[in-house]
């Protein structure tokens, strides 16, 4: 059993109550405002543990820092290829699409959530 950690609780609560998909650095900078003694290493270690336990989802995007999301309900992500902003949306894979993926890959089991990439309105301007 994992020992209770006030810092881990602070990291988890920050992610749980934000509507954005913050990076580890953004989480650290915001928590540092309330708790000047928290270290960058503490934030990173606790993020890794929360991801490992399945309480937080890590969203990786080539070329930009990982972002973090509270896993509360199944949902998918759309990521801007230019600025890296992450959007949640509630469309999940249907059986037909899941079966097509299985037929074209060696994957037997996979998440019903998926990620698509595009260009957001701000970057398109």
By DSSP, the count of extended strands is 5
Query: Nearest-angstrom radius of gyration?
Result: 17 Å
User: Could you report the average pLDDT, rounded to the nearest whole number?
Assistant: 89
Give the strand content: 15-25%
Total number of distinct structural domains: 2
What CATH architecture of the largest domain do you see? Orthogonal Bundle
Going by CATH, what is the homologous superfamily of the largest domain? Answer: Winged helix-like DNA-binding domain superfamily/Winged helix DNA-binding domain
Please count the helical segments. 5
Order of helices and strands: HHHEEEEHEH
Please name the CATH topology of the largest domain: Arc Repressor Mutant, subunit A
Strand arrangement across the biggest beta sheet: 4-3-5
- Assembly state of the chains shown: single chain
How many angstroms does the end-to-end distance come to? 51 Å
Class of the largest domain, according to the CATH hierarchy?
A: Mainly Alpha
Structural class: alpha+beta
Low-confidence stretches: none
What is the strand and helix layout of this fold?
Layout lengths: L5 H11 L7 H11 L5 H13 L3 E6 L2 E7 L5 E5 L5 E4 L5 H10 L10 E4 L2 H4 L1
Parallel strand pairs: 3-5
Antiparallel strand pairs: 1-2, 3-4
Characteristic key phrases:
125 residues, alpha+beta, Arc Repressor Mutant, subunit A, Dna Ligase, domain 1, 2 domains, three-stranded mixed beta sheet, 5 helices, 5 strands, 21% strand
Structure description:
With 125 residues, this protein is of the alpha+beta class. The protein folds into two domains: 1-71, Arc Repressor Mutant, subunit A; 73-125, Dna Ligase, domain 1 (2-Layer Sandwich), CATH 3.30.1490. It is built from five helices and five strands. It has helices at 6-16, 24-34, 40-52, 95-104, 121-124; strands at 56-61, 64-70, 76-80, 86-89, 115-118. Strands 4-3-5 form a three-stranded mixed beta sheet, with no helix packed on it. It has a two-stranded antiparallel sheet with strand order 1-2. β3 and β4 form a beta hairpin. The protein is globular. The termini are far apart. The model has no long low-confidence stretch (mean pLDDT 89).
């Amino acid at each position: 059993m994992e020992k209770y950690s006030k810092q881990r609780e602070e990291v988890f609560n920050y992610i749980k109550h934000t509507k954005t998909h913050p990076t580890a650095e953004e989480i650290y900078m915001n928590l540092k405002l309330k708790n000047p003694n928290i270290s960058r290493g503490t934030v990173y270690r606790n993020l890794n543990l929360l991801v490992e336990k399945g309480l937080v989802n890590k969203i990786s995007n080539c070329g930009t820092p990982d972002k973090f999301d509270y896993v509360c309900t199944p949902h998918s992500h759309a990521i801007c290829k230019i600025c890296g902003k992450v959007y949640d949306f509630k469309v999940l894979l249907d059986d037909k699409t899941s079966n097509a993926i299985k037929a074209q890959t060696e994957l037997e089991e996979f998440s019903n959530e998926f990620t698509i990439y595009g260009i957001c309105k701000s970057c398109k301007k």
